[in-house]
Design brief:
alpha+beta, single chain, 215 residues, tt1808, chain A, 2 domains, 13 strands
Length: 215
């Protein structure tokens, strides 16, 4: 599957259809046109979060709203809480939530619904004070919303794994499945009755899908 690269930078002269294709056919209502496409910065991400409580990601100079409904948030918080509890007891690293901005590459800001970052990746073993630290999660958890597109998610996975992410869990509340990615394209689908495994990222961590999707 072809994906956009950061070498192709949007600009204010681009048509909306071209911009949407570049961003993975994300719905138009999630794409912010100010600052002009191609000119947005990490500071704009923080300004929207601080002053308007709007969570956006930034890629290729474009601000894109992060979709999150109540059910998706509940699932993300449940998974994040279980990982945080496990990691804290064993002093393995830190866990960030859906507004945990990370600069995966210069000018590229992502915020997975849950991010686990191992202690070895933290400067001095501690999370930097910078609001958007240049860190890459070992494990990224994405809970799908209705407006997430396959191309959008494929690009996010490609960026994460290219920078050093080892594991991505893509959670689908509609089908009650979790797709476990060990590379941008290699994955297996877990269903109710099966159990998530932290593998070499969180050795010994287990979480039943029945718990994740319990009403």
């Amino acid at each position: 599957m072809a994906t956009a690269t950061i070498r192709e930078m949007p600009s204010a002269t681009w048509s909306y259809p071209r911009l949407r294709r570049h961003l993975g056919m994300i719905p138009a209502e999630r794409i912010l046109l100010f600052p002009h496409p191609g000119s947005a910065s990490p500071e704009d991400v923080l300004a929207l979060d601080d002053h308007y409580n709007v969570i956006c990601e930034l890629f290729d100079g474009v601000l894109v709203r992060k979709p999150m409904g109540a059910e998706e948030s509940r699932i993300a918080m449940y998974i994040g809480g279980k990982i945080a509890s496990y990691a804290e007891r064993r002093k393995l690293g830190v866990v960030l939530g859906e507004a945990g901005f990370l600069e995966l590459m210069p000018g590229q800001v992502r915020a997975a619904d849950v991010s686990f970052i191992s202690k070895e990746r933290l400067p001095g073993g501690k999370l930097p004070k910078k609001k958007i630290p240049p860190l890459v999660p070992n494990l990224a958890v994405e809970v799908l919303s209705d407006s997430n597109t396959p191309k959008e998610m494929a690009r996010k996975r490609q960026e994460c794994f290219a920078q050093g992410t080892q594991l991505v869990w893509q959670v689908d509340p509609k089908t009650k499945t979790v797709e476990v990615f060990t590379s941008p394209t290699e994955s297996r689908v877990l269903r109710l009755g099966q159990t998530l495994d932290g593998e070499n990222v969180l050795p010994g961590f287990k979480l039943k899908l029945s718990k994740i999707f319990s009403d």
